[in-house]
Fold these 4 entries.
Entry 1:
Amino acid sequence: MNKSNDNNWTLEYYLWDHDLLNDCSMDYNNARYSNAVFNAMRYIESKARTKAGANPSDNGQALFEKVFSQDGGLLNIPFCKSSSEKRGFVDILKGMYGFHRNPKSHHNTEQISKEKAFKIICYLDYISQVIDTAQPRN
């Protein structure tokens, strides 16, 4: 990717999840990059909650633990075969939430760059695809 060409940072071209795109593109396209990342994280949180049939009051890191934990989580990611892979997915979700969503919720944060927002949102698009594969735990 040629970093000097601003057109390369277009979400519409790269994202697979159209609902994710709808939730964050207005802020992203209007240079409100922190808001775009915040909305993308809220989308992932909502998607996990809905897919698992969790309570609307379940949120944040506790939600990800409840939904995907290796010991009694509501959903299973089929291609996570080992307990460390399952733990890794939960840790990624909790880390993304704590690092990228919580600061915007709890205090004013410095605006992030378009490039950083693009990279975070594209990774969340991948996370969304992983959640799509999730199946109810037997």
Note: The chain has a mean pLDDT of 88.
Entry 2:
Amino acid sequence: MIFHAVAIAFLAAGARPSPLGGPSDDAETAGLSLRLIPAKSNVFVGEPDKLTLQWSTKQPLMIDRLGVNLYLDAGEGFKEYRDCERRNQPYQFGETLQPGSALWSTYTLGAHQVRQGSASNAGFEFALPRAGKYRVKAAYTFIGGRPPIESNTVTIEAQWPEGREKDLFFKYLQARPEFTTTCNASLAADDGERVEKLLRDYAHSLYLARTRLWSWQREDGAVARRVFAGRSPMDRTPLQASEAQGLLQEIDSADFNGSAFDDERLVLAAQLRDKWGDHQGTLRIYNELIAKYPESEAAEHAREWVARELAKENRESKESPE
């Protein structure tokens, strides 16, 4: 199996200066274009942000969406930034990008582990730890060693939090950045309880949006386990949306409009409805997602689901007797 050198480096620890001096001349011959889009250009210090990379090409091109490195300039030049949430993305190696279409990949600019954790310190730091302007760009290395191709550079400005967010940040999160990320999934039991309390006490916090999504996913698993625990081992009845109604309502009613992760909330709401047997609800939310966030990896996923369902309905209508 062939792997990018950059993909292997992407999994290593630490940061190093960017080796890139600018876009290569090879970009034109390859026909590949990369456009980096921040979900938010203005955030609080330490607030997780999301970056979306749009891939387009002038000619059919085989790509690997895991072969991307991010570079962050916090005022001392560009250094490689490793998004720990990116490691387990289920991309297919060797996708073909076609002219006239686009693919998308997303990256979380948030708390990340920069050193080995200990009993007193998990080793996490915020990507945007101080007030000021930060520059970010992406670079992709082709199979076969062609020079890297860079995206545009985007600027994100961080300011000190205010109101309830200020209270949350300085009381709790400044010393525990890992509470804002899903990269530290193995929190100690008392830390897990502390995070759940913060989610209750700061229900609309922008800092805790990623953590709240993770909490909902855990709750979905707990609901499913409770349902199956009450069934006979021979019971193959599909899950029913009514059995998870409380969780689905909580996700639907959550205010994520100021967050960089509202598209992921909609994806989760649709995926859970699909799992729990609410086909029409799934279709409704995916259509909402496509309309609201058309230039996103989430919308790409939604369009694929809608296309599969339409193809399935067409096959079934042809197979059904007149």
Note: Residues 5-159 form a domain with the Immunoglobulin-like fold (CATH 2.60.40.3880).
Entry 3:
Amino acid sequence: MPKPGFARRYAFLGVDFGSIDTAFTRNGRKLRMPDGIAHYLEHKMFDLPDGNAMNLFAAHGGSPNAFTSYSMTAYYFDCTENFEENLKILLRMVTTPYFTEESVEKERGIIGQEIRMYEDSAESQVYEDLFRCMFREHPVRVPIAGTVQSVGEITAQSLYDCHAAFYRPANMILCVAGDVDPERVAAIAEELVPPETGALPERDYGAPEQMQCPCPRKERVMEVSMPTFALGFKCPPPEPGFEAMRREIIGDIAAEILTGESSPLYQRLYEAGLIDAGFSAGYESVKEACLLSASGDSLPSCRDTIAADRDLAEHRGECIAHFLKGLLRVEPKEMLLHTSHADNKRHLAGSRIVLHRLHLDIRCVRPECHVNDPLHELRRLLRGHCSVSRQVVACQRDSDSKTDKGLSINSHQITPLSSNRFGILGFKASGDQLSTIIRIR
């Protein structure tokens, strides 16, 4: 993407190989790699026969980094000078595997420390618990970095096998932005990237997932300043390609108008002191695994300002009722429950703006992703996939949080609220602790 006059230049190289790609068939041979090998390989790709790539980038003014997700590994840099030299380092780095048993063994301790750091993070653990409870077979239920035990099984040869299988031109993408010459970038890539040979491996993500979640909730006791929670609804995977892209756009926008900062639900929960500014929701899609989720921290209990659980549940129901009525284009006068006319008009206007943005977002991506009736798509997504059997709640709390700290979720505290004509099903906790999420069906 040429940007004439821009001082800083960027290059991003993505490999279609993530933490879930541990089982695959290559050249008729079935392979099962240790969990965490994609992340391990990301670390070791910076080793080159003539030194470490980090030092080479630094010598040319480049600022590199990398990450591994469930579905991809990415390497990138930015610089203000010596762009071509840095690009050559990046391309040579990802196409030159260089692993020794000594260097692999040395990295094992470093990655083990990183895994323990994630194990001490409430945010990481709450999502890993969510995935483990939601998926029975899919490898997304395994942490991206693996476990200390699994990385202990990684060898130099297993790294070479994964690199040969996935670090290939047909399985990589290079994106460049800044004051650059696209033809020159293409020429450098053609010069340094080896030609494609053979077919890509066939990946195996396990047996198809049943939509019913194997475990409905999980609570973990950790040393945390505030309880952390995550709620998810398991969704059937869409067809790959443009349908998956369209579903992700619709899911993200549905979450935004339900729980975005301008929504009545967010404002009520925030003002009640049950969530903080870190509360968010969205749609996540990993190959053959999809979910709608919401997560955040629960602030200290607001029992002094809330009369009873029943009152808060009623307020949460109002918020979703407003939203659904807005989607159904009911006149604002029919929405005057306990909020002002101005609040209702503002949320109706916001809903219509978001729906308009849904049209624009999808049409800007590709014509094939166009949705003729975004209202219908939003309602179908929410009502079709948000059901009790597909729901998982995960929570991290301190050992004494039941008495004085925010949200607490476990099997004997949470009870379902009855649904009404808007299809609302919320959750309330006994005693002083109140959950913050409601469900729509």
Note: Residues 21 and 203 are 7 Å apart (CA to CA).
Entry 4:
Amino acid sequence: MLDLDEKLLDYIDRQTELTGFPPSVRDIQIALDIKSTSTVHTHLRRLQQQGKLIKIDGKSRALRVAHHERPEPGTVSSDVIPFLVRVTEGVPLLSPVNCSGSIAFPTPDKSVDLSMLFCLRIRGDDMKNAGLIDGDIVIAQAGGEYVNGSVVSVLINGVPVVKRFYKENGVVLFQSDNGVRPTIGNESMILGKVITSVRYYN
């Protein structure tokens, strides 16, 4: 079993590869179920002292795993991912009529079909146990494979939202992480599987 330091290094490495930048201390705390942010800071300082983490000069929270050589600036392309704001019957999901605005997102994994990606902004904190809080942006893949417990984008009351998918005894449930009673639905309501998230700081 990996110890906490190894798990922390692996998580920073994977998130940096996925998003192009390292996770925040709060992201690390939630993802690794660490008791407090001060504990995360303690581990980060120790890993820097051991030379396993390198802090990038001039950036407040930019860390990289020492063994992982990041690409030179400009070598990882950023692709434009549209914001899905509505779903209109009779038109393709990612038609311009359903989208408003976009973000530039680094996509080092070229196996991902970019034409199937869309993003949503999280409203409220009902998915905070999944590491998603108000204002976060999630990237979802239309048609992505999902299993029980997967975080998905789903159409509820005509609005694209983010929930966990469960199927129990043939009944499809869309569950928040805050204990609220789940919505009963069907798999045709699923718009895509969430594959990563983005958080911006002022």
Note: The longest helix spans residues 4-19.
